[in-house]
Amino acid sequence: IKSYANEARVLRELCPVLRAAGVGVPQVYHVEEEHSPHYRLLVAMECYTAPQWQQLPLMDAERTYAGLDWLARFHAFGAGGKFKQEELWTPGGHTPLRHRPDSELEELPTRFDAFRASFQAASEFRLPSADVGVRLQLEAAKVSGWLEDAQQVLVHGDFKSGNIFVPADSDGGIAA
């Protein structure tokens, strides 16, 4: 329930501020929450559907660049102090290792191998090197230390092509 309440707060309070700063998010018209006897959430917002918008299973280099640009602006918005992370859900992205189960780091090479294997039949996808899982495991503690000391940023909890909306007649812009 806490995650839904956080989502409601983001939609109600953060989306309008992001839009005003030029970060592509939908226009939110109304957010209504009911806490008793069960939590319910009603949201009315701009609809990103065809023919004006599309979702792509794979994005070309131009769209990928636009997606990374959007994500950088989203993160930077939080780092700029325009909306305090502590005003949102405090666990954030659980990125430092102290927030993650020990088994996750131990199993990283095996899980990466399984992830990599799932793409072997995709001819349009260039597979990363087979040793990436081991290399990630070796660097994880160092990266976690950096994250512990890093300035807090906004974290988009599910940034993937299925949650990225591409204008059908555009030359590279996106919304997420």
Describe what you observe in this structure.
It is a single chain. The protein is mainly alpha-helical and 176 residues long. Helix content is 40%, strand content 10%. The protein is built from five helices and four strands, in the order H-E-E-E-H-H-H-H-E. It has a two-stranded antiparallel sheet with strand order 1-2. A hairpin with a 5-residue loop joins strand 1 and strand 2. Helix 4 (108-117) packs across helix 5. It is globular, with a radius of gyration of 19 Å. The two termini are 22 Å apart. The model has no long low-confidence stretch (mean pLDDT 80).
Summarize the structure.
The protein has helices at about 1-20, 60-80, 100-105, 110-115, 130-150; strands at about 30-35, 40-45, 55, 165. Strand 1 (about 30-35) and strand 2 form a beta hairpin. About 40% of the residues lie in helices and about 10% in strands.
Task: List the SSEs and their pairings.
Blueprint (H helix, E strand, L loop, with lengths): L1 H19 L7 E7 L5 E6 L7 E2 L6 H19 L22 H5 L1 H10 L14 H18 L16 E2 L9
Helix pairs in contact: 4-5
Helices and strands, in N-to-C order? HEEEHHHHE
- Percent of residues in helices: 40-55%
Secondary structure: number of strands: 4
Give the strand order of the largest sheet, numbering strands 1, 2, ... along the chain: 1-2
Features:
176 residues, mainly alpha, 10% strand
